[in-house]
Specification:
It is a single chain. This protein has 391 residues and is an alpha+beta fold. The chain has two domains: 162 residues, 2-Layer Sandwich (Ribosomal Protein S5, domain 2); 169 residues, Alpha-Beta Plaits (2-Layer Sandwich). Helices cover 41% and strands 21% of the residues. The chain contains eleven helices and 13 strands. The strands form three sheets. A six-stranded mixed beta sheet has the order 5-4-6-3-1-13. Strands 10-11-9-12 form a four-stranded antiparallel beta sheet. The protein has a three-stranded antiparallel beta sheet with strand order 2-7-8, sandwiched between helices. Helix 6 packs across helix 8. The longest helix is centred in the C-terminal third of the chain and has 26 residues. The chain is globular, with a radius of gyration of 21 Å.
């Protein structure tokens, strides 16, 4: 979370006035611990909200517009409240909050005029769901300003934010990212059934171990096109299985059914979906009993499946996870997110963190020429208003 005094200071520099009437909000980014690329196959996923995310300083104004600024991104996008909110290419990143405002307006929410200044500490382009965080942050902020928070509980906030990205932005994302940002809980992961959009909390705290997020600093250039390709392949694999047995989702297939798929590419895609669903179930057992080594082993197996059967890792993520696994104190590591760049995660003994970072960075740079970045993060609560000390 961005330092509140820094954020308020930047807000005052841009919009003037005094800090007394500025309110602060925060929405976390998310990391998917395990259950990769099965959210669109009807599977269970295991994300956690992070202590890293996006903050917003906000002040209600008398104008009939919403002015936006960002510490991290250029431009000063606006939304006119006296006309229908439509997607505007010139608005740039401001379309993400604007889309949420449109969804709220369509549901009868009386949006308040305000100035909003965003600031995030999520690594840029790393795949930790900055888009979902700013959507959920906007939804929570606008409903609180309007006094509508009781009408929009966290699950509804998540669904509305997903709808904004699907319909307003035009990105066919699943529900996981927005759900984790809205419904996170400190020291817990979320076991999310993507088919029913229902969930339960699972303790996520291994005594003596830390969650390390490793940014490969490889931009995810192929992620979007390959994501659409993999979705189509999974649908084709499901169709192939349905010739013999009608199942609702690919993850409901048996291992034998996946091996009976004639096409070798579709066979591998189905094999990943079915085996990853099983790993999620076993990961919940490891979390429940605090078994860091068992959880780390599942991370390793997940990465191998994503590399060999799903083919979404790439040179950089493979090199990064290999380097992490060879470091003293690492229980396991895997890529997280869409793949082809972005981040990997590792479970590392806390007393070995310094050596882990030095070893992994050195080995990764030798293999790729790139410099990795490391973030130690905890599981955090979902989007919320931030109360300042003494406030």
């Amino acid at each position: 979370m961005t330092d509140p005094s820094t954020l308020i200071g930047k807000f005052i520099d841009l919009y003037g006035g005094k800090p007394d009437d500025v309110r602060l909000f925060f929405a976390p980014g998310r990391v998917n611990l395990i259950g990769e690329h099965i959210d669109y196959c009807g599977g269970n996923v295991l994300p956690a909200a992070l202590t890293l995310g996006i903050s917003a300083a906000v002040r209600i104004t008398r104008a009939r517009n919403i002015r936006m600024g960002s510490l991290n991104l250029p431009g000063s996008p606006t939304v006119n409240l006296d006309s229908n909110i439509e997607f505007e290419e010139s608005r740039g990143w401001g379309n993400y909050p604007a889309g949420v405002m449109r969804m709220l307006a369509d549901r009868g929410t009386a949006l308040r005029s305000c100035d909003i200044y965003f600031a995030g500490d999520l690594p840029d382009g790393a795949g930790l769901s900055s888009s979902a965080a700013i959507e959920v942050l906007t939804a929570v902020t606008m409903t609180r300003l309007a006094g509508y928070e009781a009408k929009f509980p966290p699950r509804d906030i998540a669904l509305l934010s997903q709808e904004a990205e699907n319909k307003f932005i035009g990105v066919n994302c699943g529900i996981m990212d927005q759900y984790a940002s809205a419904l996170g809980r400190k020291d817990h992961a979320i076991l999310l059934d993507t088919r029913t959009v229902s969930s339960k909390y699972v303790p996520f705290k291994f005594p003596g171990y830390s969650l390390v997020i490793m940014n490969s600093n490889k931009r995810r250039g192929l992620a979007d096109s390959k994501y659409n390709e993999r979705r189509a392949e999974c649908e084709a694999a499901l169709d192939a299985i349905r010739i013999k047995r009608n199942i609702a989702d690919l993850v409901r297939a048996t291992p034998d059914e996946t091996e009976d798929i004639p096409d070798p590419v579709l066979r591998r895609r189905a094999r990943h979906a079915v085996s990853e669903q099983s790993r999620v179930e076993r990961a919940v057992e490891c979390l429940t009993r605090g078994d860091a080594d068992g959880f780390g082993w599942l991370l390793n197996k997940s990465h191998e499946s994503l590399r060999d059967d799903y083919e979404v890792t790439g040179l950089e993520l493979d090199a990064l996870t290999d380097a992490a696994r060879s470091a003293n104190g690492c229980a396991g590591a895997r890529m997280t997110g869409a793949g082809f760049g972005g981040c990997a995660i590792a479970i590392v003994r806390t007393d070995k963190l310094d050596g882990f970072r030095e070893h992994t960075a050195r080995e990764y740079r030798a293999a790729t020429g790139l410099t990795a970045e490391f973030y130690t993060a905890d599981a955090d609560d979902g989007a919320r208003e931030v109360t300042l000390r003494g406030g």
